[in-house]
Amino acid sequence: MDVFEAVNSRIACRQFVDKPVDLETVRDLIRGAARAASSLNLQPWNVYAVTGEPLRKIVRQASEAIAHKELRTFETEYPECPEELWDPYNRRRSDFGWQLYGALGIDREDAKGRLEQIKRNFMFFNAPVGVFIAIDRRLGPGQWADLGGYVNTLAFLARGTDSTRVHRCCGYACIRSCARRWASLRADALLRHGHRPWRPPPPGQQLPHPTCGGE
Hints:
With 215 residues, the protein is α+β, with helices and mostly antiparallel strands. It contains seven helices and four strands, in the order ααβαααβαβαβ.
């Protein structure tokens, strides 16, 4: 697979096959993505891969946390985007939501259904491997841009392997206290991404949706 095909065929999957993954493949992807360019070669990313029972524990605890507290009230370390967006950005976000929830059969007015779908981010959509990516909070915008380069490089390398098909970002950064405990992050680490870079179900196969704790 060439790089153009990897870029054009990458998808944001919302459902994964929960099958064991060769950990050496995971290590190769993480090491390979470190070839991403970074200003002054700072390589500002810190990567934590989780699988097996530790990952299942994270999912259980995240589900419990979300079940007992309104998701939108969790403290965040940075805004995902400006509170008041303007076009063309607002239009793109609106179009994205319309297409996503429409494809899932969730009505625009179904607030509960939309929230339940958002919660599934924290369950890694059934993926067998979770990857947390953090950055030292003392670094600046340039290093955040470099971190994005690492994330995309990881995604395209994952798409280019036989066993790894997709890449999807989730919202663990918005429940930072839990994520910090799970990944044993240093006090100066700012969690930027949570990822599931693994295999979606075969075409036409529908997997059961796991249930969030407390529901």
